[in-house]
Request: fold
Amino acid sequence: MIQVLQTGGVFVGSTNPVMVKNTIHSFDDRIEEMDMKYKKVLGNLAANFAGSTLKVGSRYFHRIGATGKGFIKFYDQIPNLPDHLIFSRGKHYPIIMRHSNCLSSDDDARLDPRGAVIRILSNDPKEKSPLLDLILKTGNAFHARTIGDFAAWLVCGAAAREEHVKHAPHIRDAMWGSLRQTESYTVLHYYSNICRLFRFNNGQEMYVKFKLRPFDTKFGEDTGKVEPKGILPPETGAIPRDENDKRPLLFLADDFKRRVNSPERVRYVLQLQIRPVPDDEMAREIALDCTKPWDETEFPHFGVGEITIDQVLTIEESEELEFNPYLRCNEVDVIHASSCNQSASMDHGRSVVYAICQHLRNKKPLPEAWKIFLNQSDVKVDLTGCPMAASLQKKVSKEVTLARPWYVTLWLMSGQPFIQTFLPYFLIGLVIFAPLNCIFYLSKISKIQMQWLLPFLWICSGILAGLLCAVTKWILVGHKKEGDIEPIWSIGIFMDTTWQAIRTLVGEYYMEMTTGSFFFGIWMKLLGSKVAWDRGVYVDSIGAVLNPELVEVQEYGSVEREALLFGHIYEGEGGKVKYGKIVVGQGGFVGSRAVAMPGVTVGTRGSLGALSLAMKGEFIN
Reply:
């Protein structure tokens, strides 16, 4: 096979050389310092968002909102803050602020996280570059610790997400805690979630998080909070407003403009949380974890200045803005990451995605480094019509691949939820009935008290439930093969989701207790997995049987607790679900809460670390 290598490129690999650097083109330091896995994960993520940005011709997240101009005045006395060049006592800067909804692009009444971006400008009129962009949102935590977790969350289905948050309740709290139902952007509290590195005049370094609160203290942190009504909130961009709600579609933007133009203006207080930089790497990872807020008693928020917004920007002026989370200086720095499994990768990685999407949205040529970065991803982006030339000519489908007939929608809203709720419990009831009758009979004839026989009832019914789960799997799902493709609204997918409901209930009733034992390996074998259960295999995760017939664990392989092995993926291409096999080789290791996508192979004595993500088709050494 002939390989064409670009001039100036530095390539790694023999069979399929991958260019890791080009000595001719200018570099992007953020990309250069990433390891190969980080580049792969972020490249796929950036390409997906780039394609969506080109398709809609606008921002992907936070598409609609309202923007104003004003100023920030830092307090004359800030006792808790050492001397700082920018966040300095008594200083005054012009600012631009934009409020927005996260996913809702047409109706402010939908439940949604709300955002606030603050651009701090220089006092020097000759200086055109802003000093700093602070990106904040409602809710004091984010649902993904790393950029790898964020990418995995986007490709996971609802069932996998719900399974994940059962063992990570703080992620569920972060999702629900970000939603706000409000009459005004100006009465909410906004948090950065992600921290920055502050360097003070005395040479001291500290981690810092930002918070924006209303000037009026009567509006507390829980203003507009939405009470949880399930395991996870639905996709917020699709939550309809109440049918009795007669407010205008963009009433939040109208309210913001009205308040800015009123005599009282719009006022906020900017607050900080600071903590010393830990010496230990593990402690730094904990401090940078954006899914868990810092302890308020140990690291309290304190006010540093007041913001006043006194001028409204037009929609055109707002659209031209390019907020950049990578805006930094020596005094306020972005914390870098070299791996997609590091907590700092969330901020470091998103800055690259933001920049690429903003260039495409505003029809600006992409730097060569970004062009190469996108071209090396698995996702092909159609960049025709963009100022940058590209050899990728695959058109983005204009067909709505999730569209479905009315009768399918009716079935999904009525019949399917009923069956997926009724059938699992009905079957569990059947398998309990016979052992329960037997227990009553034995108790009657042997005079043994009932409580001594109940453990046998549970064990017997649990084993029967596991067998029944295996039988229903072959009846409802059959045998999926690597490379199979099914329409997402097909009968096959409905049967699969029905069986997944049975598997979930059986797992919670009994089988999760057996993980890590040879009995669980036998159950996997019955479900269709190729598992060397009698040759030292250790599987301690119910997430290994999401698509059991597509999982192979060879001798002495190990799958640790809460790991997820996905044998299927929905890529949005033609409304199809695709299947791929996952292989854990001899002595291979899959760590706790790791995620393996279809086609992943963990080689002989290979290791996929805890909390890691293996992308589609990846080989893990």
Q: What stands out?
A: The CA atoms of residues 495 and 598 lie 20 Å apart. The chain has two domains: 63-321, 406-620. The chain is about 30% helix and 20% strand. The radius of gyration is 27 Å.
